[in-house]
Amino acid sequence: MANPVQLKDEGNKHFQAGDIDKAIECYSSAIKVCPDKKMLAVIYRNRSACYLKKVSHLHSIDVDAADIKALYRRCQALEKLGKLDMAFKDVQRCATLEPKNRTFLETLRRLGAEIQAKLKTTFSTDSRVQNMFDILLDEEMGKENKEKAANNLIVLAREDAGAERIFQNNGVPLLLNLIATGKPEMILAAVRTLSGMCTGHKARAMAILHMVGVDKLCSVMAIDDEEIALAACNLFQCINDSLTGGDKREYGKEEALVLDASKDLKTILLSLLEMVASKKVSGHGRDQALNLLSKNVPRKIRKEKDNSRTLFTIDHGLKKILKVCGQVPELPDQLPLTENTQLIASVLLNKLYDDLTCDPERANFKDICEEYIKSKIDPKDMDKTIHAVNTISGLLQGPFDVGNALVGHQGIMEMMVALCGSERDVDQMVAVEALIHSSSKMSRASFFITNGVSLLKDIYKKTKNERIKIRALVGLCKLGSAGGDDYSLRQFAEGSTEKLAKQCRKWLCNPQIDTKTRKWAIEGLAYLTNDADVKDDFVEDELALKAMFELAKSKDKTILYAVACTLINCTNSYDKKEIIPELVQLAKFSKQHVPEQHPKDKKDFIEQRVKRLLKAGVTSALAVMVKADNSILTEQTKEMLARVFLALSENPRDRGTIVAEGGGKALIPLALEGTEAGKVKASHALAKIASISNPEIAFPGERVYEVIRPLVSLLHTDRDGKQNYEALRGLTNLAGFSEKLRVKIVKESALPDIESYMFEQHDQLRQAATECMCNLVTCKEVQERFLQDGNDRLKLLVLLCGEDDEGLQTAAAGALAMLTAVQKKLCTKLTTVTLQWLEILQRLCLHHNPQIQHRGIVIVYNMLNSDDSELAKKLIESEMLEILSVIGKAEDSPKRQEALDAARTCLVKAMDLGLIKPFTNTS
């Protein structure tokens, strides 16, 4: 047997001597007998160098008959190097020069087949998948290549074919290997790929769940990394949607197996509940576990009677959620939390309580909460006691009725008051927070005003701890605002609330105080801005406004509700009861309390406050707030943000600022999700913006199509006239922008509503609807409605042309001009819908408004051009000829030039039809 080392050395000698062919021969022989992989790699490299040398020698070949052999040798060398495309070009030239040479033709066929096979292999999903995993698991591979491979894998998994290929090619164990590396970027790539594979495919989702295991997925979500926790949460959601059928999208052919996912769903639910109270879980992981419970446990549709998941969660996890609410981060041995964890837990408690269907279920919920609180109250263990008080605070921020009932129990209130006098700062802080949350009802606030104000004042004056001081101040703020915006129900002496607000603004603007503490300054202002003097002072303090907006953009999203409340108060966008003078007099006569409006709550003051808020950047803050996590951004908060947006967009001149700072985009999700009132307010604000803005700028990209549904919802008869009007104006602007938008408006079934408003007695609504129709008539589906028999659509349009209102006439005549231009049948039909058609048409042509006159003459031209000779004859035999002649003979005028040119075109058309002859002078 030949020695590979000797053969390699011999090849090296030939290479150095310049005998490339002999060197290649030696290296090829060595490759056949070499068992050592490292040496084999060296020999391959040496042989490649030989081929490259041959290619470089042959590179300057002139393609003629004499050089065919050299060209073919270069082709062979390139083939050996794996450069098949270049080799193919060379042999292609050879075959062109010698088309009957069998060697060339055979090589050409063989190389062509090899190239096709290589392309197929290179671009096949199997090859791509394996290649990506090889790159990701290669320790020596560069970061850029790994990132590219990870992104490709994620994208591939989002396609059903790609997801299936990854799954079939041992993909799940390989993804588990990526997770096992412990590197955040690898874990993220693996989790996101699994999410794609589980989306919309029940059988595959179930198989992956069993292969990976619920415990493994939970351990990934428990990692102290926000991005990984969020990705794992999304993976759980994809699995849940696939197993429950929650994902309604089409993803290709689903297996025809009947799979029972109930056991798996129950396992996931129990595992998430375990995560909620586990010390091994990070704050981010706990947030996502609570989010998943919040999103998937309570019923999404109240009409469904089955709330068994909620009842199961209450039985197996309510105490765990209460434990999270009761955590006091300042104490040792607490669960890892983020700034948002306890608020998310409170929101979950509220959703669970709201999902209960009867009194026995609610009584059970309250009993579990009461039992938990009692088990934690221990006079000998202060840490346990303040845990109980903090749990009550959590309930007061969630299911308020439950928390309020617990506060009313004997000894609870006294315990809170006693803790306020404790020497430990943490006791005072927790107690004051609980007092603040529990005094939300007027009756309870009145109790505190009588019994607790002096206590809070005492704490405020004596404590040196800023965190306690600010909380005591918020307590005083809340008590001071118990009368709401009723000027006659001021709780404190004149000027006291302004002093409290000034101190809150001072804390708010101090960047050296931590975010969690500064949040309480906004809480205070949320209460105090019920007072118009306070809100007026606040909006003039631009530094304080900007500080609040910066906090609203921070990671601590527990602040959103307080910011929303403050903005609601500053813009007076809360619901106001209409004050009827007769009833006020009656109430005074019967010695009943009559609410009084503060002088600074009048319209001109509100407008000034809105301008100051916009100047300080309120829109960009609202846009960030809307993007917050769904669990924290409750439906009530969404409604408040929608109300603020509506107040800000009241003045048309301010709408450009709102659009420039992303307000248009931010309003879309508020208009599609939330409370009914919130969706209506957001839709109304959208309509205001859509009516005067360029849609491409206000709602960039595909978002513009999402705007149409909210606007159409405002056309319903249960909406007020102002909302109907703004929606019609918004749709008019959108309809004038593109054919795709017009088609979308038609698809959203807006036409019947728009047509009904064209019959409306209210002049503005009728004009707005007609203007909208004028922009829609270029759409084929709209034209077909006018062509249908047995309706009054065309008749209405003709009659509207005869109205006295110029705006209405302009819109109706414009619609009629476009319809008769594209649908010649309508020209004849127009004469049958009403006997007044000719009179109305003549009035349009004689109109003093150049726009209306031009549109009228265009309708006449369309009728002359309609291929209906009788109709054309009838028009010319009427007074219309004289009208057209007078207009056509008039001197050119910039204001009326369009009408003059149209009249002259009509006369030329009449001559072409032989209905009139040109006037000639006789000599």
From TrEMBL:
Keywords: Chaperone, Cytoplasm, Developmental protein, Differentiation, Myogenesis, Repeat, TPR repeat. One of its GO terms (cellular component) is perinuclear region of cytoplasm. It is found in: Cytoplasm, Perinuclear region. TPR repeats lie at residues 4-37. GO terms for molecular function: Hsp90 protein binding. The keyword Chaperone applies. Pfam families: UNC45-central. Residues 291-479 form the UNC-45/Cro1/She4 central domain. GO terms for biological process: cell differentiation; muscle organ development. This is Unc-45 myosin chaperone B. The gene is unc45b.
